[in-house]
Amino acid sequence: MEYEVIVIGGGSAGYAAARTAAAAGAGVAIVDPGPLGGLCILRGCMPSKAILRSAEVMGLMRRAGEFGLHPVEARADLGAIVARKERLVREFAEYRIGQLRDPRFTLYEEPARFLSPHQVQVGARVLQGKRFVIATGSTVRHLALPGLDQAGHITSDQALELRQQSASMLVLGGGAVALELAQFFQRIGTRVTLIQRHHHVLSWLDEDLARPVEEQFRAEGMEVYTGTQLHRFSRQEGVRTAYFSHQGRERSASAEGILQALGRKPCVEGLGLEAAGVHLEHGAVQVDEGMRTNQPHIFAAGDVVGQQEIVHVAIHQGEVAGHNAARPAAPAQKADPRQSQLLVVFTDPEVASVGLTEKACQAEDIPYLAASYPFADHGKALCQGAPHGLVKLLCRPRTGEVIGGHITGPEGGELIHELVALMHFGGTVHDLLRMPHYHPTLAEILTYPAEELAGQLG
């Protein structure tokens, strides 16, 4: 059974690759052992945002008195929250499953394993492919921390399925998943302790953008330890304890449960990539700008390439891989690196970033000017009771072209797209100032650092 393009994986990257290749006229097979739907729908973006909304509403209910309303006693029903999440996920998944079962494709709901560079074993069948796209996503990374397995813990995947709420929880990690889930559990009434190795959360960002998140977490009652070194874990009579160093002192923290949210890894186990001759580096499939592996007829896209675990990036990479796989004689498309420069973390306050940070400019010796403005001095944010955070712009010191935009604050994930559009077209701080901004809106805060930078430019 031979196909022009065989796509291994039916998630965001895999479906994008299959759809693009089929649109180019290729005969396409998709191989996915299920459950069908992909990480984003089943265990990532959609379920996490569904439960975060419940915690956001509960957080507002607790603040009723601040807005002149009679206080209410807000209590969470974790089982009901998860039931709502599962209903939404089921609807999203059904739509994706319908797309995968489109007659344009041949869908095999079984695992795939390479037997050679052009053959894969799929159940009892052997499929022959002229070209392949590997899009198997990622899985939770297991870290061998002393005593952690013995103490017992859950992963971010399992956290989305919990129906019984713990009274207390240790959350390990300071990335997007760790922070979103930590705040969720804290807001629904679990006493959370967050332990992060780096000296601030969201370590890839500038410190001034990350600190407002930590401040908000502490204001909500969460214990937050940054700049730590984990030593070991223990369990006694149902209580789990982490032992770590913090600010030169040996400390410990105990809770009923532990959430290990220290990242994910590319899902390559069982694929037989050795038989295909596909090279890995640090556990990820290595690709060039055209998403091509070291084997010219094999491409890869999405989390499995270990670059950015972000859906819009996976879709873009999948489209590039699908196009190049379907049209081997045509000039190759290249992945746009700007796609991976947009990040959003759905905490409260939200964190959104596009382009270069000050940290990146300093590391790469890139000249820049920077200016920021706090939400605590912005009228609409104060009216909304959302004073935490700031906006920051970076521009080139000669032309004023905006090369970085960052928001920690209310609706940051929505506001960032004005800066995405501006930067996509090479806009300057002067262009941003010329654009009309309605008053009072959150968006008009972007004009304040732009005005400061325009003054510096002269």
What does this molecule look like?
The protein is globular, with a radius of gyration of 24 Å. Strand 10, helix 8 and strand 11 (223-225) form a beta-alpha-beta unit. The mean pLDDT is 96. It has three domains: 2-140 and 265-338, FAD/NAD(P)-binding domain (3-Layer(bba) Sandwich), CATH 3.50.50.60; 148-262, FAD/NAD(P)-binding domain (3-Layer(bba) Sandwich), CATH 3.50.50.60; 349-457, Enolase-like, domain 1 (2-Layer Sandwich), CATH 3.30.390.30. The protein starts with a strand and ends with a helix. The protein has helices at 12-23, 39-43, 45-62, 78-100, 148-151, 156-159, 176-187, 207-219, 273-276, 311-326, 358-364, 379-383, 412-424, 429-434, 447-457, and strands at 2-8, 28-31, 105-108, 112-116, 119-122, 125-134, 138-140, 154-155, 168-172, 191-195, 223-225, 228-236, 239-246, 249-255, 257-260, 264-266, 280-281, 284-285, 298-300, 342-345, 350-355, 369-374, 390-395, 402-409. It is of the alpha/beta class and 458 residues long. Helices cover 33% and strands 26% of the residues. The longest helix is centred in the N-terminal third of the chain and has 23 residues, at 78-100.
